[in-house]
# Entry
Amino acid sequence: MLYNLMAFRRAARETFQRYQYFIEIIFKFIISFEAYDRIVTILSYNETLGKGILKLAFGLAGAILPPMITILLCIAVAVYEVFSGSPVMAALVLAVFVVLYCFGARFSGKFAYAIVAIPLLIRFNMHYIVALLLGMTATPLAIFPAAVGIITYYVFGAVQNSMTVGKISSMDEVLAMYIKFINDILANREMLYIIMIFAAVIVIMWALRQVRFDFSFEITILAGGLLMIIGHIVAAKQANLDLAPSKYILGSLASVVLVYIVQFFRVILNYSGCESVQFEDDDYVYYVRAVPKLDRVVLGEMEVPAKTEKSPDERGFRGLIARLKQYAPRRSVLAEMMDRSEKENKAVQEKRDRADEEEFMESDSYERDPEPEEMPRRRTAEPEDSDDFEIIEPETGDSEDASKDADNNTSDEEEWR
# Structure
């Protein structure tokens, strides 16, 4: 069962990596299409913007544009919708959205889709998953895009409550509409409590991820879900909010399950195979705790090769030795890290030795060998037919002495005999 589960996980990850580009485009298209549809449905002051062809065009544009540009287009659509109902109100809404956009664009980064995802998921009671995912993958700065997304949702509600469609006859009506709009946002205690709960969940989950202990990811997700439920219970009692317990409890539990599934495909560890080691080089001392991934362990140990007809070499004692080598345990991660560190240290030392040798050779104390002088070329003998060729004959005196010595030697030999 575990082997099949890990095999399915690996196949799913490989499929996603292979078609990641197209999957991201489809995901961005769905988000953009739904965001446009929600804006024109909630505000609905301009019937022209509600046409299906415009929704499709907006979704296609959002699929190829960066997230922050898509958010900017959503703001433009929302402001134009409000402008169709009340130009005076559109000016205030534009100012609020510009502030939120600048505030969110500064800190959102790659988590900009949280701004759009929260207003879309609130109607399904699944917006809690955004805080849990940000807590598992982001830093505390992710509080800002989450807060902007929550405020955006309540801004649309404030526009509906304070909107005056038609002509405004006096400045008092303008001020009354603005005051009501601002009070609906600033005095909304439910919005403030949800922002604080999301911020607490993101910070606590981030802090737990910094502590190294067994099953840290699983415990972090569970702690985030419990904190989400407890926070809503406390907010409902302290602020007398009309929050149905079954609503946020079920939504939080469902979000926890979904985040567990995401974490399962993201990374899953085998804590029973933890290894700890200490090694050092010339500059640092390393304390390493390595936790193997569960899919590597399971698929590496349990994967059995396909059955084929055995050759004669695979039978008997040789076959046993071959199978033992085949299923021998792989080297640990720490052993590979230590070998890599030794190779790097050796390379660094060789580089330092070469640098010292070059520095010594360039110094004044190094005595260089004198350059060898060019040897004079030896004259070769001239051909025999040359006029300068001279034949030296032996002197006669020397030859006579040699003959006398030879005669004396022969006479002495005869005498001895």
